[in-house]
């Protein structure tokens, strides 16, 4: 092996240049296709709408709890603090194993301290609070830790409310109508600033947040959420977009109340989850450099590689390259090669699983109550979903996927011979699915976005 080959293997977590092509070229092509050929999409809603119910089956209630614990640790917008959690059977009680996309040692320690204090508060309940009062205390504790994210949510909710008011005016709705009045009510409740610079201003800010959440809860009980959802489904995108945003950010705020109440309810169902516990914070993985090594990479080259790997005899796929270039696909691919933001990282769910694998803790009996589940603060992305599906042997279940594709995703480091072989086989299975997705995305673009182009006659 040459020095340059050894350097490349070390730099890219053990992946060869061919493996980088297999993994990232189909991803780039599909991301580019979506950028030029699809309508806007809106965030997955399941996390907002799900709430704890006493009649939940045990496993579902446990998964709800794990997801909520991960969510409240995801305290910044932007993706770096996205978190995953597995609960193992520790030496005495449960062992909470947390991982995040990209938290440094200081943030991991702060998160660990938060989890420690929260579990102690709920498990020991030192003031002997009743359930409702304890739920409020837990909510305040969660809101305080998530204040940075809440600042963004407040701005976005204020903007969404104003856009929906404008939408009502364009519909010529009477200001006394229920939708109009509900929006004015919301506008008044979210008209405050978040300031935690001093203890007295922090208490006021958290109190204002709680008041807003109560207002959103009241609207939900009044059935206003059904009206918002109906308008969000309007076939006219310019009419529905403001309501989609409003629905999403109302759900974000409400999710904190559901988390607080759910955590307290779970403590009554399984008190042992809050006693004699351990907390393990897995250090975040390192990013790899931009994996696109060819400066001349184009859609034509990617399609050639897809055809070669699939051993396809159909030349029609290659004929799409000229049309893709005219659509600007090649410009997007070139920009990705130069992008300093294209630095793939280890997603939290994979990070936690790889920690368990390294420590030989993937067997069913290693998990608390033998429930082998890795929860997350967000639904799993498509690549994480494919990764866990491709695993063999003892593998955990994970959150359902929102099917979003992110280019900043990487496999764990692997340089050992036997493990490297297993990883290579897993990569091949991933790449096969990604090639199929890219081809399907191209077909969809042809049939939907360009029905009158010459490409519409292609069958892929």
UniProtKB/TrEMBL annotation:
Domain of life: Eukaryota
InterPro entries per the UniProt record, alphabetical: OTT_1508_deam-like (IPR027796)
Pfam family, one: OTT_1508_deam
The protein's name in its UniProt record: Uncharacterized protein
The organism of origin for this protein: Fusarium mundagurra
């Amino acid at each position: 092996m040459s020095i340059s080959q050894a350097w490349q293997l070390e730099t890219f977590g053990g992946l060869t240049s061919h493996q980088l092509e297999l993994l990232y070229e189909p991803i780039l092509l599909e991301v580019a296709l979506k950028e030029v050929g699809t309508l806007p999409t809106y965030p997955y809603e399941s996390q907002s709408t799900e709430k704890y119910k006493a009649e939940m089956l045990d496993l579902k209630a446990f998964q709800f709890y794990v997801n909520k614990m991960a969510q409240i640790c995801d305290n910044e917008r932007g993706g770096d603090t996205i978190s995953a959690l597995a609960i193992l059977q520790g030496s005495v009680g449960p062992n909470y194993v947390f991982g995040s996309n990209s938290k440094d040692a200081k943030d991991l320690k702060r998160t660990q301290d938060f989890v420690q204090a929260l579990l102690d508060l709920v498990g020991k309940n030192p003031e002997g609070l009743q359930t409702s009062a304890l739920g409020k205390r837990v909510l305040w504790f969660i809101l305080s830790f998530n204040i940075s994210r809440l600042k963004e949510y407040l701005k976005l909710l204020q903007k969404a409310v104003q856009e929906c008011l404008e939408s009502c005016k364009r519909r010529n709705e009477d200001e006394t109508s229920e939708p109009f009045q509900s929006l004015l009510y919301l506008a008044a409740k979210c008209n405050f600033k978040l300031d935690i610079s001093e203890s007295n201003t922090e208490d006021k800010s958290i109190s204002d947040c709680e008041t807003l959440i109560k207002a959103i809860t009241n609207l939900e009980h009044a059935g206003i959420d059904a009206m918002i959802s109906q308008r969000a489904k309007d076939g006219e995108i310019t009419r529905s977009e403001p309501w989609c945003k409003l629905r999403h950010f109302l759900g974000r705020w409400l999710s904190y109340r559901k988390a607080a109440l759910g955590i307290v309810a779970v403590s009554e169902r399984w008190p042992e989850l809050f006693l004699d516990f351990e907390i393990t914070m897995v250090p975040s993985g390192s990013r790899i450099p931009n994996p696109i090594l060819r400066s001349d990479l184009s859609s034509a080259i990617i399609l050639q590689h897809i055809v070669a790997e699939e051993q396809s005899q159909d030349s029609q796929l290659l004929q799409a390259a000229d049309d893709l270039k005219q659509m600007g696909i090649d410009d997007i691919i070139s920009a990705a090669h130069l992008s300093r933001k294209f630095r793939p990282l280890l997603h939290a769910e994979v990070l936690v699983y790889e920690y368990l694998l390294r420590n030989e803790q993937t067997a069913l009996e290693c998990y608390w109550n033998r429930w082998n589940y890795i929860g997350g603060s967000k639904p799993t992305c498509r690549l994480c979903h494919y990764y866990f599906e491709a695993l063999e042997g003892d593998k955990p279940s994970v959150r359902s996927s929102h099917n979003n594709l992110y280019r900043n995703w990487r496999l764990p480091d692997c340089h050992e011979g036997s493990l490297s072989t297993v990883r290579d086989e897993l990569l091949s299975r991933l790449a096969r699915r990604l090639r199929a997705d890219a081809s399907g995305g191209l077909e969809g673009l042809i049939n939907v976005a360009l029905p009158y182009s010459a490409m519409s006659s292609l069958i892929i």
